User: What shape does this take?
Amino acid sequence: MPEARPAARVEIDAPLEIVWAVMMDIGAYGEWNPFCYRADCVVPPKAGDPIKLYVRWANGKTQTSPERISLVEPPYDDHGTSRATLAYVYEGLPAKLGLVKGRRLQSLSQVPGGPTVYDTVEEFSGPLVALAGPDRVADGFTRHADALKLRAESLV
Assistant: This one.
């Protein structure tokens, strides 16, 4: 079965708790996020909640993406490394038909004295993965990561 894993990574010169707070302030995405310029969900989000993402591709076209939050793991200590995770699963018609499945994972990690590392990946699978546009998703993730860095660092 075809698969794709568009991803992005950035180092952020801000404490993990600040980066996490920016990520969880879903209502403010329109102020800083060029890729996911709006998101509708319950605040604070928790596992099982629906979330509707409004994305803007590099060509300026927009699209909505119905998702369901699968994991909200607030900052915690993992043997001296701080970590946090937000994940959700794509629930659009292609997923319901088994044509394209997607799971997005956004994780943060920070060792003492180091930057916060933001990693994001979408795990796509299904016979129509190519139609999901893995390259344009990777571009959006990079724009999202870079904007997250700017927003969090501006708050330090």
